[in-house]
């Protein structure tokens, strides 16, 4: 008791001290900034000081401000939102091209900050008094992308409830699990997304009889919340922000499929939602004049946090599409006058594969940001769609930090982290790449002392992010709700010193001599074959550059072959609709082989090849690689599939049962 109150007192004193010191320091730096800027010009060529100063000057102001807001218990995103309403009331906050009955036609709905705020307060009234939603509760939303998603989300934040964004494709046991782990009191359901949840309703009610499932009648609800005469509800500050709340408690919950089985609920802390997203938005040059278009599901962190929160933190406008469509993409971008678009790598490929759209060059987009744009299509993407800047970032839902780039011209293509010398130096305390075990790229290397080592330039290693208080990891890394085991498995201890702790990204990253970082692979995505490291990504890129318009997608994984060391390359091909007649065409495969022989090391050429109608994706358009890694040969799980193999290292031919026997017994050499 006594210790606790002394600690609390010390913390108070510390907070006051920080407030007394940091504000004058920030002021001094701001006053000096013209002089500092002159000096910076000279240094820029060599150390890219300007880009760094752009970031640091913001950071120096934003962080003390944020600490101050924590001290006052006003750190929730709601207050940032209220500030934007006061400052930018008549600016657009939301823009939604609502699809009309006539296919391919849209009506663009717009909401200013003030309109959005009023709607949110009216909806809060409905939620609070009609549905009984109370502060501190967790409330699930099963919603597709539309304005009501944002209305509900911010109404819950106003009330002081924690929104939990269900993936509306989830059905059955994983859905029950998602609702259960978050201790959800009620679920609000979009009519467009009601199918899976209706289907699972008996199981939900059996296991969780107290959960209220609210199927929303949108027309009725809209009539109330759009009517200026409807009552509003603004939560009392002391109820929305009780003193006990810390800034690493959940702002919202987001589900990730993770590596095994049931979904995990990742905690999105206030700290990430407020300070992380503000900084991110600022680095991507989002201003109160920007419109950021997203076609990615809002229940994922990329669209919700790095889209909506990052944009609102800067007073910009979010334009969203109900769902991604390659053919309708640029039209919606054009209609909403977007200045930024969000992507994942697969979206860029789909767009490059689609027919020319009359809108693809008519838009205002200068910046595309996202994650997973591959180096082989980077420039083509920029050129074809006339985009100046790529903001490739590295982030994952649960990671405590994101990396960013702001790539112009020809420097830095393919990188996912690009800063100047100063920021790199500061970040080296927080982010690092460690060497991997030479025999197993899924474990980190430990030296004689049992410690890890920083990977040399150019060598792929696992990216780690420091957890500042190893005894209290939740202050830096909140992990998964109610899943200690999964949370702990993402923490690596005794890395550079006994007792330190780092968050494991599970991704292989490499650096170059300029200090830029590049994503290499998901860990385990590189596989070993003939004692060599094969990068699945590299093989995929080569196959794609041979058959870019013939294939619409390709996946390469390493397969275990009985009685063989390592994993043999297996390429899964999905043909473009115009080239379906090339399915199982051996001549095509061998033309590809000739190309690969000239562009890949011999050991990297896929040993097995298969065709599928459609490569499996997660809901966020990411390829589900794991399912291919366990492919059953020679004829698939049901014995009805056909595969090809690289016979005698010469040509691809159909894989027969007797070939397979010869491979396993070692008679046929791979
Ligand atoms: C928008 O941002 C610009 C530049 O930062 C600023 O001068 C202007 O006052 C802002 N507009 C509003 C309405 O806040
Ligand atoms: C909404 O905003 C867009 C982009 O600024 C504009 O083109 C459109 O006309 C607006 N829609 C309405 C209904 O005002
Ligand atoms: C394979 O990768 C590991 C880990 O990065 C590395 O130590 C090893 O030298 C590589 N092997 C070859 C043959 O390049």
UniProtKB/TrEMBL annotation:
**Keyword Nucleotide-binding found:** yes
Principal subcellular localization: membrane
Alphabetical UniProt keywords: ATP-binding, Cell membrane, Ligase, Lipid droplet, Lipid transport, Membrane, Nucleotide-binding, Peroxisome, Transmembrane, Transmembrane helix, Transport
Keyword Transport listed? The answer is yes
Question: Which PROSITE patterns did the record assign?
Answer: AMP_BINDING
* Subcellular localization, as worded in the UniProt entry: Cell membrane; Lipid droplet; Peroxisome membrane
GO BP annotations of the record are:
long-chain fatty acid import into cell
> Which purpose does this protein serve, as stated in its record?
Acyl-CoA synthetase required for both the import of long chain fatty acids (LCFAs) (C14-C18) and the activation very long chain fatty acids (VLCFAs) (C20-C26) by esterification of the fatty acids into metabolically active CoA-thioesters for subsequent degradation or incorporation into phospholipids. The transport and fatty acyl-CoA synthetase activities are genetically separable and are thus independent activities. Esterifies VLCFAs in the peroxisome matrix. The VLCFAs are actively transported into peroxisomes by a PXA1-PXA2 heterodimeric transporter in the peroxisomal membrane.
Q: Which family does it belong to?
A: Belongs to the ATP-dependent AMP-binding enzyme family.
Q: Can you name this protein?
A: Very long-chain fatty acid transport protein
